[in-house]
């Protein structure tokens, strides 16, 4: 997937001071949390707290450092349970400025990479002080092993494999990623139909109240244009799995698409970003090989020319590799070709 840049990246990076302080915190046992915020083009430490009690009491003490109208990242030490590590929490109040909401959401992954993705065993997000609670933290969905490995640098990935590191995929007693985002039987049946070629396209959405993956629609027939029109017929985020055969080709390509428009709420973006791994895992568990994985923001991002597996594109030297024009701040807009999840 390397021929496309992560176009939604903000260009914001962790400051050297934050990287150094987090490194010291990991090596020691005194620091319970660091609060970090975006200033200019860097993410800097704006508050810190030491371990002073148990995890729950320290978490509640940490929330007193949050602002009602200013976003922040929280790096919180997890030392209870079988898989200790660090929580990365994204706190973005609903009344924050729209630009800041987008900036914090789009900078999360680069922050993880700068600090070392393998350090984080859990993630959560909240839009108000009530959501930022220890009880909700215990119910938090944690990134799957494949998703976390995809965010690591090659050297981090090698160290994780050498140490036989296992990713904690739940802070409760369950350690299966998909448990937090269960897939409905209708959705599973639709995927089974896709595997047997009875379904041409499967649309799925996250049901917010119970954070489950539900079937929206399954199409038995449809060409690229009709499937695309259905995908963008409403502004709600959704997942799409469809089979595409390019003109002049007899080989079908299985395409996975996460459609999440720029105008979606931060909470929705986080939910879908986390749930995409569970959708891919269920599809692959049913024997469906995902040839292309895409994340799109608008209809113009999805074209037939993008629906080519990277291995095939690399073999075709006659096809130029184009990057989309840069938007404000130097960030590329539009389609993102996702790494393996």
UniProtKB/TrEMBL annotation:
GO MF terms, alphabetically ordered: actin filament binding; actin monomer binding
Start and end residues of each stretch annotated as Disordered: 318-341
Keyword Repeat in record: yes
Locations listed in the record: Cytoplasm, Cytoskeleton
UniProt keyword terms in alphabetical order: Actin-binding, Cytoplasm, Cytoskeleton, Repeat
Broad class of where this protein is predominantly found: cytoplasm
Keyword Cytoplasm: yes
PROSITE patterns cross-referenced by the UniProt entry: ADF_H (PS51263)
Domain spans labelled ADF-H: 10-142, 178-312
One Gene Ontology term from the biological process aspect of the record: actin filament depolymerization
One GO cellular component term noted in the UniProt record for this chain: cytoplasm
InterPro entries: ADF-H, ADF-H/Gelsolin-like_dom_sf, Twinfilin
Subunit structure: Interacts with G-actin; ADP-actin form.
Similarity comment text for this entry: Belongs to the actin-binding proteins ADF family. Twinfilin subfamily.
The name this protein goes by in its record: ADF-H domain-containing protein
């Amino acid at each position: 997937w390397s021929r496309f840049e992560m176009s939604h990246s903000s260009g914001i990076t962790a400051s050297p001071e934050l990287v150094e302080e987090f490194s010291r915190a990991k090596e020691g046992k005194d620091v319970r949390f660091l609060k970090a915020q975006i200033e200019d083009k860097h993410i800097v430490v704006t508050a810190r707290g030491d371990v002073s009690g148990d995890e729950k009491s320290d978490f509640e003490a940490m929330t007193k450092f949050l602002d009602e109208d200013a976003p922040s990242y929280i790096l919180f030490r997890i030392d209870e349970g079988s898989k200790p590590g660090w929580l990365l929490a994204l706190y973005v109040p609903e009344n924050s400025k729209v630009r800041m909401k987008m900036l914090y959401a789009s900078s999360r992954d680069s922050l993880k990479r700068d600090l070392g993705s393998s350090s984080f065993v859990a993630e959560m997000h909240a839009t108000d002080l009530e959501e930022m609670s220890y009880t909700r933290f215990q119910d938090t969905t944690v990134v799957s092993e494949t998703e976390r490995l995809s965010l690591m640098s090659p050297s981090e990935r090698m160290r994780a494999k050498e140490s036989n590191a296992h990713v904690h995929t739940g802070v409760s007693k369950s350690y299966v990623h998909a448990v937090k985002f269960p897939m409905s039987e209708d959705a599973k049946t639709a995927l089974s139909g896709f595997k047997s070629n009875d379904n041409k396209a499967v649309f799925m959405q996250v049901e917010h109240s119970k954070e489950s993956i539900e079937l929206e629609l399954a199409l038995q027939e449809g060409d690229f244009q009709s499937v695309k029109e259905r995908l963008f017929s409403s502004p709600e985020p959704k997942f799409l799995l469809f089979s595409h055969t390019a003109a002049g080709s007899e080989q079908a390509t299985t395409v996975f698409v996460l459609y999440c428009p720029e105008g979606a709420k931060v909470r929705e973006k986080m939910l879908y970003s986390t749930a995409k791994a569970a959708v891919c895992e269920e599809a692959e568990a049913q024997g469906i090989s995902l040839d292309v994985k895409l994340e799109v923001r608008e209809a113009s991002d999805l074209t037939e020319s993008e629906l080519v597996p990277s291995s095939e594109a690399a073999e075709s030297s006659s096809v130029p590799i184009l990057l989309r024009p840069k938007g404000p701040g130097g960030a590329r807009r539009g389609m993102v070709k996702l790494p393996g999840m």
